[in-house]
Amino acid sequence: MTTFERTWTVRFSDTDPFGIAHYPRIIDALHETADMFMEELGFPFWEISIDHGFGLPLVEIDMEFERPMEAGDDIEISVIPTLGTRSLRFDYVARKDGEVTFTGHETRVCASKDEVSSRDIPDDLREAIEPYIEE
């Protein structure tokens, strides 16, 4: 299995008045991680609707916090994808110095650009994601 990881450095602007990273900025970090992952696969979110005629809109997101993160912390975020027939789930694990800071997931549905309906995930995207799937 191939793993996708990236480092998110918590900035002062990512923190609340107590100096702890707050959830809207963590959601931004997750979205940015998904963007980076999809770009690595060759399917950047900003191109798939134009080049492939479908999109992957977000239908669910959830997080569970284990310990606080402060400005200056380097957080390693890993993505573990799960493929459904018409949906894609990204599970996230975030760590600081090897300790889990939060976990989360988001679910995206594969949707046709020209119709208001879901569709099967295309074979080329499925093939690009498969090496990252946990067995």
UniProtKB/TrEMBL annotation:
GO MF entries:
hydrolase activity
Q: Does the keyword Hydrolase apply?
A: yes
Q: Which UniProt keywords apply?
A: Hydrolase
Q: Which domain of life is it from?
A: Archaea
Family annotation (CDD domains): 4HBT (cd00586)
What range does the record give for the signal peptide? Answer: none
Cite the InterPro entries for this sequence.
4-hydroxybenzoyl-CoA_TE, HotDog_dom_sf
Which PANTHER family has this protein been placed in?
Answer: 4-HYDROXYBENZOYL-COA THIOESTERASE FAMILY MEMBER, NOVEL THIOESTERASE SUPERFAMILY DOMAIN AND SAPOSIN A-TYPE DOMAIN CONTAINING PROTEIN (0610012H03RIK)
Instruction: Give the family per the record.
Output: Belongs to the 4-hydroxybenzoyl-CoA thioesterase family.
Give the protein's recorded name: Acyl-CoA thioesterase
The lineage, from the top, is:
Archaea, Methanobacteriati, Methanobacteriota, Stenosarchaea group, Halobacteria
